Amino acid sequence: MSTRKARIGLVGLGVMGANLSLNIADNGFDIAVYNRSTDKVDDFVADAGALVDRVIGCKSPEELAASLQSPRAIILMVKAGEAVDKTIETLLPHLDEGDMIIDAGNADFNDTRRREADLSAKGFAFIGMGVSGGEEGARHGPSIMVGGPEGHYAVIQDVIEAIAADYQGTPCAAHLGPDGAGHFVKTVHNGIEYADMQLIAEVYGCLRDRMTPSEIGQVFADWNDGPLNGYLVEITAKVLGATDTGTDQPMVDVIVDAAGQKGTGRWTVIEALKLGQSPSTIEAAVAARSWSAQRDARAHAQDLFGAATMDTPPSLADLHDALLAARILAYGQGMTLLNAASDEFDWDLDLARVAEIWRAGCIIRSTLLDDIAAAFRGETPHGQLAFAPAFVTRLQDTVPALRRVVGAGTAAGVAMPALANALAWFDTMRHARGTANVIQAQRDFFGAHGFERLDRDGTGFHGDWPA
Ligand code: 6PG
């Protein structure tokens, strides 16, 4: 057993864990690593190259605990869910009071809240830390969203800030609030990720009958030089330009049109609904992934009803502006959801700070986030990004194009659920007088649920309904 003591430990040497460990070592910190199947520990040490002197490979939780400076800080990068609880169970007998466990997986924030309460009652520190950026981000600088007691974060802040992505000299890592705040923010990040991916896919869908994938890729590459600049637009240009070497076909043309999902998008929607929120673009994106998976049923429906194409497809300029408008609305809906959760759980989330740490390292990084951060540092009436002066102007400029694109799709019978639902939210919000008076009347008619009146104060009025 080694006599050296590392600054930090990590359990779970999958792709993300291994890359995060190398990132930590690369930034000058000694790291002790452990994995349940210990051959991964050997492989990791063997592949550590020049960083091997900063790495301590451990074959048991006991050895890991013995290889760490006190108070111990151990990052978990294991599959979200039961594996996290099981790993914590195996570690606890080897830890001392005051030692810290940091869950860096895509955890359900409800689990994080439970674990934090549970471990703090036992005298341990627990941090729930959302990490975004995929494999590349983990190795060279992810965006890191931290939740848990602020004093506990202070113990590892230097390590976290050193390994995080850098945006113009500022680390993309922050302590955002207590208990599950970090994992909730990561969940909503992923919800926005789902929405933005779906919006991009819908725009691709408008173009693919008249352009080749690589031509569409070039459109996205051009757009990436303007206000739509961001990681997801950038990689869309790349994936559309790629060729399958086996068949010489465009790569996207040999990929089955059924999207996978591990659950974070769905969690965003579930938590939003619990909070009385409805982030329509994210809901639509989750729905679209589920519908995409029903391939056989879709083939059957095409036989029954026929498929549609747009006779007069939208112009590239309209698609650009429609994507921009819908992206603004999607980010805005995510931010509104964060605000609602912050109120509900007393997190006091700083939305400008959240936008700032998303500006580099994470999957939804985009030029827009700098403007979003500025908007939340200024005036956002009703907490709505869309109502911030700079975004009012941008939406006035771009929503007409969104309307034309959705109109063309609807008229032709081509689905664009995320674009259409972004517009539905916008159009609902801009009508001070909606139609829910009829719903209230119906509720009172069949269940005497009562309503409020425009002409009188008070609640619980009933209508003079016919029998
Ligand atoms: C990130 C990503 C990352 C992962 C998602 C994919 O921020 O780095 O969001 O967490 O790519 O888990 O989620 P789905 O498998 O649900 O698309």
Describe the 3D structure.
The structure is a single chain. The protein is built from 19 helices and 10 strands. By secondary structure, it is an alpha/beta fold. The protein folds into 3 domains: 172 residues, 3-Layer(aba) Sandwich (Rossmann fold), CATH 3.40.50.720; 243 residues, N-(1-d-carboxylethyl)-l-norvaline Dehydrogenase, domain 2, CATH 1.10.1040.10; 33 residues, 6-Phosphogluconate Dehydrogenase, domain 3 (Single alpha-helices involved in coiled-coils or other helix-helix interfaces, Up-down Bundle). The strands form 2 sheets. It has an 8-stranded mixed sheet with strand order 3-2-1-4-5-6-7-10, with helices on both faces. Strands 8-9 form a two-stranded antiparallel ribbon. The longest helix has 30 residues. The radius of gyration is 25 Å and the shape is globular. The relative contact order is 0.09. The mean pLDDT is 97. It binds 6-phosphogluconic acid. The site of 6-phosphogluconic acid has 13 residues, from α8 and α11.
> What's the order of the H and E elements?
EHEHEHEHEHEHEHEEEHHHHHHHHHHHH
Poorly predicted spans: none
Shape-level CATH architecture of the largest domain: Orthogonal Bundle
What's the helix count?
Answer: 19
Sketch the major β-sheet.
8 strands, mixed
State the end-to-end distance. 84 Å
Let me know the CATH homologous superfamily of the largest domain: N-(1-d-carboxylethyl)-l-norvaline Dehydrogenase, domain 2
Mean pLDDT, as a whole number?
97
What is the CATH C-level name of the largest domain?
Mainly Alpha
Class computed from helices, strands and strand pairing? alpha/beta
Helical amount: 40-55%
**DSSP E strands, number:** 10
Give me the side-by-side strand order of the main sheet: 3-2-1-4-5-6-7-10
Q: What is the general shape?
A: globular
Q: According to CATH, what is the topology of the largest domain? A: N-(1-d-carboxylethyl)-l-norvaline Dehydrogenase, domain 2
Q: What Rg is obtained from the alpha carbons, in whole angstroms?
A: 25 Å
